[in-house]
Design a protein that fits this description.
Blueprint (H helix, E strand, L loop, with lengths): L3 H8 L4 H13 L2 H8 L3 H15 L4 E4 L2 E4 L1 H25 L4 E8 L1 H18 L2 E8 L2 H9 L5 E7 L9 E10 L10 E5 L5 H13 L3 E6 L3 H9 L4 E5 L7 E3 L11 E8 L6 H13 L4
Parallel strand pairs: 3-4, 3-5, 7-8, 7-9
Antiparallel strand pairs: 1-2, 5-11, 6-9, 6-10, 6-11
């Protein structure tokens, strides 16, 4: 007599292709962007999700007008999927001898690190599990200084909106940010909490206020994003941040608040002028491919 438990085990398993697609959906937050990433149609991606839901016998995604979100079961599956795929890729790289290995030093501004780095590093580790990426966070001018002294191998950096198109991976809007319920935007003169004077957000704030003839006072300046956010949370000043860096408990000040419009910043990747190593090239290419969808 056949063992029913064995029959169930053989007929029910988590397909690696489905798991990889599911992880990409979780990272991009939209079936359409996931389809572009893997080079398949959105209908094919939807079918893969359906097959995965049939296998797990649980709903995994919540579909909405602005994309998809994971259900509680989807969140649990994501943790398992990442572990399974990492173990698979590590084994394949080890046995085939084809995986890259070594250490990379990556620089990234604080305002991109929280949102962009986790999925970027997960995706790169899945492809190259034997590579260790050391991350250093600082404003772009400080990252460029470290690149110049060969203390970093590559860096994600902010560029002016007018940067050469070939250097740009994506754009991020600069926004005025204040504490919820605060009247800091109405203060005369306007109290500002800004990054260092050589950063694009500082320069954009000053240039736009000067052009609008709005009086202001620099109440706080810091290299630390956490420090700027703390001052804004106190209600004593407003700041200029990239939209992706705005915490949920702060608000983007609307155009009706009397503040001038701000430009966008471009995001690019900087590598050393010398010919990059295979490791640097692999991470740079990964960032350029994955970052537009995050």
């Amino acid at each position: 007599m056949a063992n029913p438990g064995l029959a169930y085990t053989l007929s029910t398993y988590l397909d690696f292709e489905l798991l990889r697609t599911f992880v990409i959906i979780a990272e991009t937050g939209a079936l359409s962007r996931a389809a572009e990433r893997v080079g398949r149609t959105q209908a094919a991606i939807s079918m893969q999700v359906k097959r995965l839901e049939q296998t797990t016998r649980q709903p995994l995604l919540l579909r909405g007008g602005r994309g998809v979100a994971l259900t509680a079961h989807g969140e649990r599956l994501l943790l398992h999927a990442q572990k399974i795929l990492r173990a698979h890729d590590e084994a394949l790289a080890d046995l085939s001898g084809q995986g890259l290995a070594g250490t990379l030093r990556l620089g990234c501004p604080d305002d991109y690190a929280t949102v962009f780095l986790p999925p970027l590093l997960r995706g790169f580790a899945a492809r190259h599990p034997q590579v260790l990426v050391e991350v250093y966070c600082a404003p772009t001018p400080r990252l460029l200084e470290r690149m110049g002294s060969h203390a970093l191998d590559l860096a994600i950096i902010s560029l002016a909106e007018t940067a050469v198109q070939d250097e740009v991976i994506r754009y991020e809007p600069l926004v005025w940010v204040g504490a919820r319920g605060s009247d800091a935007a109405a203060m005369q003169p306007l109290q500002l909490a800004l990054a260092a004077a050589d950063t694009l957000d500082h320069q954009a704030a000053v240039a736009s206020l000067n052009a609008a003839g709005r009086p202001y006072r620099l109440a706080y300046a810091s290299h630390s994003l956490a420090g700027l956010i703390a001052v804004v949370r106190s209600g004593q000043a407003i700041a200029v941040l990239t939209h992706t860096a705005v915490p949920d408990d702060l608000q983007v000040l609307p155009s009706g608040s009397g503040l001038p419009a701000l430009p966008r910043v471009a995001i690019g990747v900087k590598t050393a002028p010398r010919k990059p190593s295979a490791l640097v090239s692999a991470l740079s290419e990964h960032i350029c491919l994955a970052l537009p969808d995050l």
